[in-house]
Amino acid sequence: MSGQGQVVIITGAGSGIGRATALRFAERGWTVVAADVDEGAAAHTVAELKTPGKAVSVDISDSARVAALISTVVQSFGRIDVLVNNAGFGFRGTVETIEEADWDRVMAVNAKGVFLCSKYAIPELAKTGGRIVNVASYTAAQGIADRAAYVASKGAIASLTRAMAVDHIGQGIRVNAVAPGTVNSPYFAKMLAESPDPESLRASLDGRAPVGRMAEPEEIADAIVWLASEESGFVVGSVLTVDGGTSIWGR
């Protein structure tokens, strides 16, 4: 998939899946806008690219800053062809134990962030016949213990993906999502580093999937790039599960 002259915005591009996705697009010649709340991390990603790129600091829960992001990209590159809504986070807690402010923050970033980025990008994507790829999670369909806010936010993303796909296909915009399983990301690296028994925790994380390991960020990035390509031209409103079989594990 040649991306010569095409522009992709990737949120949460400073690390993990976002960083890997930025590198994958760059390998195919795309101009990459790496958006992240951590401008330094975004700049580090851009420094690794083999194609033109731009690092932008943005809090995707802030409407004004998202609008400014889209405006900056159009002013800098003249177009937007793909939006990858990847940024998100989570933490432990049930509906009984999560503080209301923490619930609101997860929803503001994970769900509202997808809404805002899409809202402001769609008028530009309509000009290019663009694509949106959202990053949901296998937990949106299966659930996981002690992650109520995260699971709810990812379920919202999966449902919003289907709604957006119906609403905007008439504008020539295809909307899909990828639902990763457990990914070998900085989030889990930090969890392992802080664990009193990292070997046991690593075995537990690897054991979530029948393949016996966590996904590498590049494996999720490959799915995102495919959904953004013309090779998936008949795929609309799908949530592509890439979880090593976790969701069919039956245990």
Automatic annotation (TrEMBL):
Protein name listed in UniProt: Short-chain dehydrogenase
Q: Output the PROSITE patterns linked to this UniProt entry.
A: ADH_SHORT
The UniProt entry's sequence similarity note says: Belongs to the short-chain dehydrogenases/reductases (SDR) family.
InterPro entries, A to Z: NAD(P)-bd_dom_sf (IPR036291), Sc_DH/Rdtase_CS (IPR020904), SDR_fam (IPR002347)
The alphabetical list of record keywords is: Oxidoreductase
Q: Give GO MF terms, alphabetically.
A: oxidoreductase activity, acting on the CH-OH group of donors, NAD or NADP as acceptor; quinone binding
- Name its GO BP terms in alphabetical order: fatty acid biosynthetic process
